[in-house]
């Protein structure tokens, strides 16, 4: 008896995080052409080609769909629920988009961190825009699940390598910005005073000779992240 | 024009680590039936079924091929090089094994940590056995690459969660065993005196009232890992 092995299409989906000027975590969504308004927004993603490796596909697709080039993307999970593409609207859209009858589709999800002011554009979709994480609508396929998993992954990533948090901040930032970002990423509440104390023990967060301008509250000092100092201190397996 | 999208078989491959009585890191390999002797050994792996999710497939395949049940397996990477299954011996073997003409095959790799005394058996393959990491032969497909990547992944995993190192040790262990295991996993050399000092600052590594018996060197004290104490101290994003 021949067993019924999977023979499937494979896509990549890209979860791109940004941190906006109101100190909120955002995710980049594209808007696809589909008649059902509530299923228009989705993660940037597409099928990979028959001669393409999956990391190359992630790079190509992110560029094609958002204009972002040369971004470090971390592959974090393969999503392969047999029913993940079984919604009738999604099936119709895939037929139109890919000119193929698609019965099942696996996806490999990627995670990346982007400065919110990065130039975004797209030739393929009308709209590519940031969406605050608290306002993410119901998305097609299992894209909501992918985003939830990506949040767990980004937390793990920061635990392994705290320096990646600075990818989301402007080059000069205030401790309040870092605190808000940390709060948006962490599941645990941390008191701002304790946070200040902790942060001041990190010699790779360097105070600049510059404070905020034109702000209604007391102007705060700017800091920068020093990657060299960080690297020197954080290369051991046991911390 | 219809673009040429991937339509592929997908497998899972399981990298199972063990730590032997000679203090060496090992990986579990199975031996497949193939006439070319130097391509017989491989990672435990198989195609997933058409109605199967990938994590379920990893659990099934590991059980079918090694007898190991209910092991935590961490999905760590999808390998999708278009040429990863292009060796003629591998193609012939796949045709015989799966009764399918297989043009391309993607694999999702899993990582797990196993006590070396865990019962291993297999109905499918003649031989399932541990192989010291320094003695791993040239393997079929990209299995050598998968093992190399899994070593990088296990290091990252230990950085995030040092407690997982104890999955590889017996319930009671000596500091020398922990040191040897740490040395096998780490890329950096650490002096045993410094290691002792570091370890003694970890309150979750608890000295037992018991020492080694029947050893030719000076009998060392046994220790155990206390998961509760570890968990209490290690739940913060910033350490």
From TrEMBL, chains A, B:
Residues 165-225 form the NrtR DNA-binding winged helix domain. Gene3D superfamilies: Nucleoside Triphosphate Pyrophosphohydrolase, Winged helix-like DNA-binding domain superfamily/Winged helix DNA-binding domain. Residues 10-145 form the Nudix hydrolase domain. It comes from the Bacteria. This is NUDIX domain-containing protein. InterPro entries: NUDIX_hydrolase-like_dom_sf, NUDIX_hydrolase_dom, WH-like_DNA-bd_sf, WH_DNA-bd_sf, WHD_NrtR. Pfam families: NUDIX, WHD_NrtR. PANTHER family: ADP-RIBOSE PYROPHOSPHATASE, SLR1690 PROTEIN. It comes from Chryseobacterium ginsengisoli.
């Amino acid at each position: 008896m021949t067993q019924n092995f999977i023979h499937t299409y494979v896509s990549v989906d890209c979860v791109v995080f940004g941190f906006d000027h109101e100190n909120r975590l955002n995710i980049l969504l594209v808007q696809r052409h589909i008649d059902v308004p509530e299923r228009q927004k989705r993660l940037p993603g597409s099928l990979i080609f028959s001669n393409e490796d999956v990391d190359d596909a992630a790079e190509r697709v992110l560029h094609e769909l958002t204009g972002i080039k040369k971004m470090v993307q971390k592959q974090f999970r393969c999503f392969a629920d047999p029913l993940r593409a079984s919604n009738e609207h999604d099936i119709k859209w895939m037929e139109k988009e890919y000119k193929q009858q698609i019965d099942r589709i696996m996806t490999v999800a990627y995670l990346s961190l982007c400065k919110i002011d990065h130039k975004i554009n797209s030739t393929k979709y009308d709209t590519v825009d940031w969406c605050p994480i608290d306002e993410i609508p119901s998305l097609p396929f299992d894209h909501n699940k992918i985003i939830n998993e990506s949040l767990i992954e980004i937390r793990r990533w920061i635990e392994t390598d705290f320096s990646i948090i600075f990818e989301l901040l402007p080059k000069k930032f205030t401790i309040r910005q870092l605190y808000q970002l940390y709060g948006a990423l962490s599941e645990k509440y941390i008191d701002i005073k304790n946070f200040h104390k902790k942060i001041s023990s990190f010699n790779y967060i360097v105070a600049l000779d510059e404070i905020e301008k034109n702000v209604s509250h007391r102007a705060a000092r700017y800091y920068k992240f020093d990657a060299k100092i960080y690297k020197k201190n954080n290369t051991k397996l046991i911390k």
